[in-house]
């Protein structure tokens, strides 16, 4: 038990990603509050290390969603990613590779072909990134709530929105 003002509070840790705080308030009513732990770049890297091709992407999304990631944006130029969680929590992963030049014009048809091949496990991540840069894809954003992955060109235009299989 931890002393909290005139009250005692107990933190119960049943899961790696969730603490439950039980405390009484000033009028001795029991209060239960979920406290999500914030995720780290190291935890996300561990989840991503299981991904060998686009075929494993849905499992990766499930893993990082359990960590508390609600949204993220990956940049093709160097592979860094901005991750977002609850209460405005944000972390950024470092660059994963040297700078790539993203094409000025989008080749949507070629990108869709390359994406399909990647999702079928025919290309690894770095090959897919190179194909994205050639097709003019600057970044993609994943929304955990909607379970979508949206690809954007350099002008910020949506090129493709996909439902993530569950």
Distinctive features:
single chain, 166 residues, alpha+beta, YdfO-like fold, 6-stranded antiparallel beta sheet, 4-stranded antiparallel beta sheet, 4 helices, 10 strands, 34% strand, disordered N terminus
What does the model show?
With 166 residues, the chain is α+β, with helices and mostly antiparallel strands. It folds into two domains: 2-36; 41-163, YdfO-like fold (2-Layer Sandwich), CATH 3.30.1810. It has helices spanning 41-48, 57-67, 108-119, 125-134, and strands at residues 2-4, 7-15, 18-24, 30-36, 71-75, 81-84, 90-92, 137-143, 148-153, 158-163. The protein has a six-stranded antiparallel β-sheet. Helix 1 runs antiparallel to helix 2 (57-67) and helix 3 (108-119) packs antiparallel against helix 4. The longest helix is centred in the C-terminal third of the chain and has 12 residues, at 108-119. The radius of gyration is 20 Å and the shape is globular. The chain starts with a strand and ends with a strand. The model is unreliable at 1-25 and 29-36 (pLDDT under 50).
């Amino acid at each position: 038990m931890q002393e909290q003002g005139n009250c005692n509070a107990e933190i119960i840790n049943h899961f790696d990603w969730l603490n439950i705080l039980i405390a009484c308030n000033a009028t001795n009513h029991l209060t239960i509050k979920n406290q999500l732990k914030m995720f780290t770049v190291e935890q996300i890297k561990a989840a991503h290390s299981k991904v060998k091709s686009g075929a494993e992407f849905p499992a990766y999304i499930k893993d990082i969603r359990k960590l508390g990631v609600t949204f993220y944006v990956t940049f093709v130029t160097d592979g860094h990613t901005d991750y977002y969680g609850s209460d405005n929590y944000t972390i950024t992963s470092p660059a994963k590779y040297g700078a790539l030049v993203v094409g000025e014009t989008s080749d949507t048809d070629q990108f869709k072909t390359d994406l399909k091949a990647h999702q079928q496990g025919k290309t690894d991540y770095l090959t897919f990134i190179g194909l994205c840069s050639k097709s003019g894809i600057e970044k993609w954003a994943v929304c955990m709530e909607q379970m979508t992955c949206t690809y954007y060109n350099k002008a910020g235009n949506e090129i493709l929105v996909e439902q993530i299989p569950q």
